[in-house]
Amino acid sequence: MSGALPADELRAIFGDALTFDAVECFAYGYDNSRRQAQPDAVVFPAQHEQVVALVRTCRAARVPVIARGRGTNTTGASVPMQGGVVVSFERMNRIVRIDAGNRYAIVEPGVLNADLQAALATHGFFWPPDPTSSPYCTIGGNLACNAAGPRAVKYGSCRENVLGLRAVAGSGEEFRCGVYTSKGAVGYDLTRLLIGAEGTLALITEATLKLTPKPSAKRTLSASYVDIVSAAAAVARIMAQPVAPCALEFIDEEALRLARAHAGEAIPTAGALLIMEVDGHTEDLPRAGDAIAAAARGAGLIEVHIAATTQETAQLWAARKALSPALRTLSPHKINEDVVVPVSRLPELIDALRAISAKHQVLIVNFGHAGNGNIHVNLLPRDAVELARAERALPEVFDCVIQLGGTLSGEHGIGLAKREFLDKALDADALQLMRRIKAQFDPDGILNPGKLLPEPKDESHRQRGI
Fold first, then answer.
1. pLDDT tens figures, 229-280
2. What is the distance between the alpha carbons of residues 95 and 108, in angstroms, rounded to a whole number?
3. What kind and span of H or E run contains 144?
4. Exposure string for 302-341, b = 16+ CB within 10 A, e = fewer
5. Burial of 237 (0-12, 13-18, 19+ CB in 10 A)
6. Pseudo-torsion of CA 198, 201, 202, 203, nearest 10°?
7. Domains and CATH numbers, the chain
8. How open is the CA angle 408-414-419, to the nearest 5 degrees?
9. Which of 279-288, 319-328, 444-453 has the lowest mean pLDDT?
10. At 254, is the secondary structure helix, strand, or coil?
């Protein structure tokens, strides 16, 4: 698809805020999936108008355009597989406005999640999405894959916490969508459509985020179990009672060993662990904590423990957030999936994963956001032989998830890694409608080509660049 790079036009738009140098471009050609491809150029827009001019120029030249935050994505969604121009939004990093009275903030896509949270805290608010990479991931990247994190169990993901967007479609059309109010029924919901689209429909240049008041207090509990099936059953009980935890995390036995190495005695020796948190008014927390603890009790329970100090709480969460990078030390070929099933079917999923692990003789470590049924399934092959076995096991993992009424991703997205499996989760008619939507927003297929949507099996319906 790629045409000749419009170098002179790019220089006219960006001046010195671009590079064609191969070494400099290399750094913008990979993400946390460890895939890499070389872009032809990298540009650093500072304002919306530059993004409009870029897309129109690249469309005329039939050159791919790939949006990029900080490259924390694990599915290859920001890797420029067909070359073209990578758009790094690191210079569009302004918090434009915080409107505490109306509970929204307007931000550019390059704002770091952690920087936004720090700014909001001074006003008594927070933005709920809090992925593990929050210290260094961007709001634009969060929106691209609908990132969430532990707090999503109570407060929702990006889609539930964004009011509106400003964007540039692949056609070169610039538009605003959404509202500045907590309610709105005004046509098709383009805001939710663009969130999770991985930059394949439009480039987001501004987001209006819904803010939530910070709770006055939190209480953190942990519950240890003899095995992971007992812990999974407890998750279903906890989520079936009236008190909503603001976090409910699951860690299996293998992951616990790593967590214990990081946090020491704060992490128990057990077959599985749940980390649970409730928030709200200080006077309400004892009752909420008791309700969660009561639901956690059941077959296979070893102990329910309430964190006594802020230091103990911090150790628990630090150990949990260290797990994903720590698994790279066990397997540089780690296959990291983030499947989702209905919470009540978590015990069946865990049982099935144990069977798949034994069948293919590959270590599988599980942890994640159990309150949403969102489990990070980590296949950990140690050599080429085990990698081949893991790759054979992966379709069985996805088949199992679909059979349990689940889906392929809760927050990591599809990108390259799961593109070939998307037809397991979506029927052919739904995929064809998505291709038509893609063609409407991006008629020449220049935005992040080769990502998200699989190639049509019927070649007569193939959409250019999809």
1. 899 999 999 999 999 999 999 999 888 888 877 777 778 889 999 999 999 9
2. 6
3. helix 139-145
4. bebbbbeeeebbebbbebbbbbbebbeebbebbbbbbbbb
5. middle
6. 20
7. 95-213 (3.30.465.10), 216-415 (3.40.462.10)
8. 90
9. 319-328
10. helix
Q: Which helix (H) or strand (E) holds 373?
A: none
Structure confidence by residue, pLDDT tens digits, 160-198: 999 999 999 999 999 999 999 988 899 999 999 999 999
What tokens appear for 391 in the block? Answer: 């790759």
CA–CA gap between residue 202 and residue 169 (Å, rounded): 4
State in Å, rounded, how far the first CA of the chain is from the last one: 10
Q: Calculate Rg over the CA atoms of the chain.
A: 22
Which amino acid appears at position 36 of this protein?
Answer: Q
Lowest mean pLDDT among 98-102, 106-110, 363-367: 363-367
Tally of CB atoms within 10 A around 15: 9
Pick from 75, 80, 69: which is nearest to 37 by CA? 80
- Closest Cα partner for 12 from 66, 50, 69, 64? 50
- The residue written with tokens 């989520």 in the block is 239
Q: Residue 409 carries which DSSP code?
A: B
Q: What is the pLDDT of residue 1?
A: 57
Q: Which amino acid is at 157?
A: S
* b (16+ CB within 10 A) / e for 211-230: bbeeeeebbbbbbbbebbbb
- The predicted model scores a pTM of 0.92
